[in-house]
Amino acid sequence: MEIKPKMKKNVQEYGLYTLLVIVQGVVLSTYNPVAAIIFMCLLGVVLYRALRVNEARTYEWNEYIESLSIKMDETSKKTIESRPIPICVIKFNGKIFMYNELFSEIAGKRSLLNEDIDEIFEDIELDKDLNEGKEMYTDIVHNGRQYTVIYKVIKNGEDSSSDYMMILYMIDRTEYRKMRKQYLDNKNVIGIIEVDGYDEVLKSAREENRSLLTMDIERTLSELETTSKAALKRISGGRFFIVMTRKELKKLESEKFEILDRIRNINRGNSLPVTISFGIGVEGETVADNFKMATGALDLALGRGGDQVVVKTNDNFAFYGGKSKAIEKKTKVKSRLIGHALREIIMQSEHILIMGHRYPDMDAMGAAVGIYDICKSCDKKANIVLSSINEAIDIFGNKVRKNEYYKGIFINHSDAIELCKKDTLVVVLDTHRPSFTECPELLDISEKIVVIDHHRRGVEFISDTVLLFHEIYVSSTSEMVTELIQYMDQDIKINKLTADGLLAGICLDTKNFAFKTGVRTFEAASFLRRIGADTIEVKKLFNSDISDFIVKAEIIQNTKIINNRICIGYTTSEIDNVNIIIAKAADELLSIRDVDASFVLGQKEGKIFISARSLGDINVHVMMEKLGGGGHIDIAGAQLKNVSLQKAYKMVHEIIEKYLEEENQKEEK
């Protein structure tokens, strides 16, 4: 064995002393040579004796260290063997160096010395970075048992990797995880079920069939209660409270909540279909937490059009269903109440800032000038926040700028942020997502926010509002603003160009009254026509250049039809108004026979724009939501960043194929 550092130091000190004595002998020889010779002889004897003694002591020390090491190795081995948990020591090349009996029982072999650990436990990975002195964990399954492997790297030497070894401890977690799963499966979840438009659905049936219709609904929900081992209680006319275990909820999720289809099949001569919205709260710390989440989930389901289930956990949402269109409500009481409330809020505000979504279209801009006219009729200062006029609104926007009536109407982001105070009224139009707004910073400054929107609700939502007008059955935000103008207590004076903008917004979102058009849509259009809206001028607002037709032709040429039902096309041309052209192209692709939906992609300024259209049988909102977008059942879209056109095309293609696959599975059932 090597001489320890302390002993090396002793030898160096002896050499120094010897050197000093020799120097003294040399000095002595100059005075008395005989005495010097005798002195040097005695010095040699003493030095020889000292070296022999030092060598003997070194040998004895090494013998002691070696015997101690053997005892330590034996003690370590006995310690490992006596440990009450499976343990083994492996070299860093994966060969087993030492183990105990419990470990060999798990491995299923008596002799494991120099066996490769990877051949015994396939899930153990040793090719990780060295992390000396720290514990690391890996979960594995072996012979039907679940283990947590704790391994720690230790270093014996200084240089080579062969000096590294690893200690493995195996903790059997099987029973713990069974108990944990049983505990989680038996936890209660809370749900709230609401029959969509309950009163309207009952009124749509003959009077003698209404009681039968109610009985069918209750019987179907009672079947859900029985099969799910749940507890169901009717709260009010069309609302029910249900409690079930998480295990039963998982079964319903695996079945994609077939209750939605069973409810939808109820028919007692009712002209309106029977659908339900189902909000479920899971993973709350208390029953109150689950109830609160269930309420929020139900609100989200209703805001997305109903006929669906929303499962809310602490940090996530899951959506099921959502195939039916929202039922148009014929009553205008809500519009009248919202109009009155909006007027009161405007009258109490010194300044109003109006904004739509980024890259505003004619619906957002038409609604914005409509709110501007309401504020002006109330003698209040208002501005529309707009960074720049894009191609979708360039004709209308330039007309507004040149018109003296709208002088100073537009302000940029920096001016809006400077003007905005806590008590400044901010009106958000045609979107409910904070990140989609023209200037999200205003939402953080103002404490008075009004949201008017008709899109199906997404997870992201402006929650802190003083007034919310969110109706997803309405054709457009322009229609909603027109109703507010129409039913406000005070007479609102509307400029002719404002009327044109509102009618253009309705025409845009209804595709000239072809999609999502109800009785109230035509009534709003009639009102605008009476106050001066010109249909010819509205048509001119949508005129296109010849270059737009060329790009549209490219899209049609690049279009592929999947399963004879869905079109997907794209353009590689990067032009300023590509988002408008792909929307128009998606509309035109629906005119192809047997095509139920269309998807068109384009790119601009490093972003990928996707427009999706449907005739109603395919829910394009749900499909676009998977890409972070949204919209309606028949009109939706999405924007992607940091993604190539080819990759985005592949993503949309995969979503379409998965949708069709799920549809085929349901048909087979």
UniProtKB/TrEMBL annotation:
The keyword Membrane applies. Its cofactor is Mn(2+). It is found in: Cell membrane. It catalyses: 3',3'-c-di-AMP + H2O = 5'-O-phosphonoadenylyl-(3'->5')-adenosine + H(+). Pfam families: DHH, DHHA1, GGDEF_GdpP. GO terms for cellular component: plasma membrane. Keywords: Cell membrane, Hydrolase, Manganese, Membrane, Metal-binding. For phosphodiesterase activity, probably binds 2 Mn(2+) per subunit. One of its GO terms (molecular function) is metal ion binding. Mn(2+) 1 binds at residues 357, 361, 430. Its EC number is 3.1.4.-. It comes from the Bacteria. Belongs to the GdpP/PdeA phosphodiesterase family. This is Cyclic-di-AMP phosphodiesterase. It comes from Peptacetobacter hominis.
